Amino acid sequence: MGFIWFYIRKIFTLFKCEVLVLPSRVALLVFVVALLLIPAFTQDPYLLWVLILTAIFSIFAASWDLLSGFTGQVNFGHALFFGVAAYTSGLINVYAKVPNFLSIPLAAIAGVLTGLIVGIPCLRLRGTYLALTTLAFPIILTGLIFALPEVTGGELGISGLDRLSTSRVYDYYITVVLMLVLTTIMWKITDSKTGILLHAIREDELAVRAGGINTTRYKLLAFCLSGFFAGIAGGLYAHIMRTVGPSTLEVALSFQVIIWSVFGGIVSIYGPVAGVFILFPLAEFLRILPKVRMLVFAVLVLLTLIYMPEGLIPWIRNKIEKECPRCKVRSIATRKTCRICAASLD
Amino acid sequence: MKKSCFLRGVFLALTFCVGACFPVWGAEPIKIGVIGPMQFTQGEGQWNGATLAAEEINKAGGVLVNGAKRPIELVKVDSNEFLSIPDATNAMELAISRYKVDFLVGGFRSEAVMVMQDIAMDNKKIFMGCGAAHPQLCERVAKNYDRYKYWFRVTPINSKFLVKVDFLVLDMVAKAMAKQLEIPKLKVAVVAEKAAWADPIVGIAQQSLPKMGMEIAGVWRPSPTATDTTAELSAIQRAGANIIFTTFSSSVGIPFAKQAGELKIPAPLVGINVEAQKDGFWNATGGKGNYTVTVGTYARVKIDDKTIPFFDKYEKQFKEAPNYTAGTYDAISILKHAIEKAATLDADKLVPFLEKTDMEVAAGRFVFTKDHDVTWGPGFITSVGTQWQDGKNMCVWPYNWEDLTYEGTVPYKLPDWVMEYYKKK
Prior knowledge:
Shape of chain A: globular
Order of helices and strands of chain A: HHHHHHHEHHHHEHHHHEE
Number of strands of chain B: 16
Structural class of chain B: alpha/beta
Number of domains of chain B: 2
Helix content of chain B: 40-55%
Number of strands of chain A: 4
Distance between the termini of chain B: 100 Å
Strand content of chain A: under 5%
CATH architecture of the largest domain in chain B: 3-Layer(aba) Sandwich
Largest sheet of chain B: 5 strands, parallel
Largest interface: A-B, 27 and 29 residues
Strand order of the largest sheet of chain B: 4-1-5-6-7
Number of helices of chain A: 15
Oligomer: heterodimer
Radius of gyration of chain A: 21 Å
Number of helices of chain B: 15
């Protein structure tokens, strides 16, 4: 009993000293709790549908950040991972009758393999050349899809996939919980030794290599990890839509993910998630202005990027929190001294 | 007392008059969601067609349901399906869950319609397709009737028949060429925009043209958004083509027809050219698109008693000729007819009545096939072939096809420069 009480007290102390002291962590907590409680207050199918898609695209956007934000391997064809996984899930579910709880992990594996296939030839390229090469892959695959309509369904794609679950609320919880778990895993990866190396590769690859680290292996790992998470998003999307078509490989989707991520703030994982959670529902809200919907959307994104070049969430975070120049720990902006080392924050 | 009685009488009389003038006053409206790419011409056509139908029905008192006349209320839902499939699904959910529509008409991009169709079927909403031609949309009804029975296609005709009409119109032009210019074996240039939907038509053309006694001069695939097609046209002329068989749904249809006219390519244009279905085609080509032939749904001919009034009303109200997505007009008319017969809005009860539809609509006599598709053929919906003749888009097909010629149809005309070229030769 005393053992349990010790842990309860420890959790409470951690909560009090590590969560409640920072507005960003309180906001995250409120966001997670709100997401999990929404179906208890409303089961509006439209709202749940929008949030389901938002959760799926959040995983997708975070996976782009993992590869392009953290590792600096700018991918202009990220829809490739999403589309390959969606088609894999669709093909094995419809033709081989593999249930969705298996087809989605298999789709993720397909994403990993795609990461390998794309990663190996792209490792020699950097910057603009890498970006343009990655852009070509989904276009090539789209061509293949149209060339093999008997298998891929051509223009219409594959339809008749199993539902993700038996109800909209279950769909919601599956996607939202998966989104929370997967983005946490991605965030932990970026915070680990591997993540620091990926970040270092982005900043100065030559220096990392000079340190005796095989950067090729790490870059390939980034492609595979990113493919894995994007693959799960693609598999989930296929079973939610119950149809997989060439739109999952469209260039527009690849650019969409970049807009979400850059808007939210790259090199953070939570930034792209926030970007999707703001922009995707915003596009729905702007249906009240049908004629200028896309224009208003574009202007809002542009203004945000002009005035907040690091993205919305880092900008807000820097306004409400300060980083200690000595120990690098963050404190609320109203404090004069660091909450850990008491160094001056001004 | 007397004054009070008088006032009461006046009030009652006024109430009666107002009630008689507005029989649908206060009745709960029937909500119809018009879903489509509303920022594009296809969506505009869907909305315009539906608006016209709703205005007509409401003016006549509304839809008679169980002895009460109920007005139609249209709900515009932008699917944005050209740019985003998730957007299209959100729009469908919005229409069903938030706007609580009773019925849905519209849809355009086949891939998006497949997903939207599933959402409508999940909610047991009758969805009348007015834009997507893919056969699979109706094959789903045949494969899984219980689930997909709420789907009905009103326009366009199934793409298999659309291709058939395309070749029938080509055959008409080929016969005119052979007869008037005495060319023993015609050479056809197959020109299709570089798009997935056009691929099967190119394949069919390569197989069918030799069987039709024609030779293929070559296949050209310009970009759908090309603005200069002179290279293709010059190559076609060098290949000795006598006819150019077009398959265009995008803007390339304008420069291609314009430049063919400017260069006086000695081969008439025939096939699908969606731009040539629009009124703006003549001005866009500066009149050089004269003699261009395209397959379409509506033309100002007497397909039945409803066609010309619909065509004129549409042109008057929206300052353009209706394109095929304006078939929402017919869809709502069919829906009204079925609701009045079934005396209910219940989807399950309405389906059998919709299946029994046999009525005249603006596109012709409308009957659903057993898999809820449009019945095509003489005596039913046929589609039309139209030709630009000196600034007017005239119906030229069907013309003595299966003993069928719609009143107002004119004979096909060969371009004068083509006639001159072959006569000089």
